[in-house]
Structures are given as structure tokens and as C-alpha cells.
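From the shared-data thread, chain only:
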Amino acid sequence: MHRTRNKAVPGEGPHDAAIFFIGEAPGRAEDLEGRPFVGRAGGVLDELLSGIGLERDRVFIGNVVKCRPTDSRGRDRRPTEGEIRACSPYLDRQLELIRPKVICPLGNTATRYALGKHGLTASRISELHGRIIRAGGVLLLPMYHPSAALYRARLRATMREDFERLRGIISGLGMAGGGRA
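Structure, as C-alpha cells:
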């Protein structure tokens, strides 16, 4: 993937963020800017964060893979298992250093990865979204990927409900604005 990328997208946010969002992979806009979630899906994420009074610069946002995976026509595609294995040490190190209290994997790929790291088997995101899972001293809150709302408008209300659950977690842990408790 590094051969066809414009910029790597390592992630961004405070190094002591209590909340860590994990996406699947950078898309076209992210590849051009070198920042996560700056395209259309990023707009949905920003809207959902704003809806619960959480500022983007208070959370860490990254991806399972750090470079844009594309097919032979230059279109976005899911990362392969090999690509995930190659990139995952970077994400693992980020999680180790940041030590978030809440991890919100966005979509199937990120959810499978996050649960697998804690020895848990992942189901489909449609079965897990909005469920709080305690694993290894951290809370996992799987959510639909923001891009899902771009293709299935009816999911936006479900996503708002999941973000409300995140607001409850933040309140319950005493993390005003997503910072450390």
C-alpha cells in the first residue's frame, strides 16, 4: 500500500486521550491530506461528536491500517488480512502509549481487530454496535462506520443512539469533554 499512497495517515489526537476511535483505513481524502476522517465520512463523525458535545481534538482518531488500500482501478477497498498484520504493530503501539479508557472501533474491520486483540470473537457490527464490552481494563464500544450513514440514511439515527451511549460512558467515568478522569 505504501507504493500507491500519497501520504501515510498515522492518526491524530492528544497522546493522553481517554477515547480512541479506530477506523478501517484511510480513503482518498485522507490519503491526500495525511489526516484521518477528513472526507465525507469524517463530516459524519464530526457531526456525531458535536451532537454529544465532544470536540474532535479531545479524542484520538486512527485506523487499523495507515495507508489507503486501493484496487487495480484506484478505488478504495478493504485491507487484506496480510495488510492488517503488517500495519497492526503501529496501532498496537499507539494504543499502548495512549492507554485510552474507551475504544470505539468503527465498522466490521476495526471491531474484529479490537475484539480479537482482547481474545474475543467478533460478530457483525449490526449485532454489536452500541454494546459496551469490558476487555483488558478498557471499555470497547463498537459502532457503525460513519460512511455507513452516507449509503444507508436510516442508520444515522442508530449511530446517534450509539454516540449517546458514549456520552453516558463519558459522564459515568467523569471524563468531561473526553479527557482523562
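The chain has a mean pLDDT of 91.
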